[in-house]
Amino acid sequence: MSQSRFKIYTTTAVFIVIISFPLINNKIKWVKDIASFENRQMAAEPIFNIALLDPYPLKYEKYYNDHFPLRSILVKYFNLLNIKLFKKSPIPDQAIIGNDGWLFLSGNELDSYKGLHRFEPQELLAFKKELEYRKKYLNALGCKFYFLIAPVKANIYSDKIPFNSLRLKTPSWGEQLTDYLNKNSEIKPINIYDIFRKNKDHELLYYKLDNHWTHLGALYAANEILKNIHKDFPNVSPLSISGFNITKTETHGGNIASMFGDTSLFTGDVIHLEPKSGFLGQDVPNVGYPVTEGFVYPSEFEMCKEIKGSDKPRILIISDSFGGNLFLFLSEQFSRSVKIFDSWEYKLNKSIVKNEKPDIVLLVILESNLRNVLKYQSRFHNK
Description:
There is one protein chain. This protein is an alpha/beta fold. Helix content is 37%, strand content 14%.
């Protein structure tokens, strides 16, 4: 056999082994795959139906793309190669790597920061009508309405955004809506942008490896809320940071870091606050309100805390995941606190309002999710 023919045969054999290995390994389990680290529902295997052949190939392709042999471990090392060798995000449409190892979500969060897809005049008017409808409805029940827009991390730690994600327009989505409402509506959003930007350089207000605010960030937000509520309820007051023990621990984890498949590549801090005299608000059994259909985190739908013997007002919070740490501190100032995370729909939730009979309803929305309010307008639905 000639040397050139030997090379051809060898190359062909190696190629066949490489492309066949995942399928062979799927049978003999020589190399074990790792658990999926993607924060999403993987495609389910479609049911073959002879009467519905047209959609089957596309559905099966999506299923196979999510479940082919050794998928997770191959994706992990592909990500590792991009991060270590090329210093870039392997999933730029989902997350980006910023300065000093800071991680940011892409999509709506980055679009809001960049000033892309800003609200059209008709959208701003729809926000005004919806929020004024909610205030009128709640006021008729003797309940006060407050509204807070949670800034996306990029709008506070903009100095950590890489140069190739330049801001094209200002203000951000949340600031655009706040400006509009302040000029054109009786709804005045609680504005935390200024206080966050003022303190971001000497306080860790957002996690480095996660898109959420830390305990410190949540406390700053809670105190701005409490200052506004104090005007209507004098026995509600901001919390003094000096009354908390603050601990900081190093972590490699975070919801953005986990998207890259190997959290050991990144390092950040976790800030934990606990009152020196202990938390006043104590967990109480949930009422058991019906969970929003299809909600992927049903255990987070409802949370309830009470301060026994307190004569302070009752609060109902409609929020997203940013309400978690926030709830921890707000519940220190109310006799009963209930938080509802209704699958990013941010509805008025009339049935819960009627059952809880709160003195205060607080709506908290991450600015990148603001358009969901328009998608689920309560003035058009009896919910």
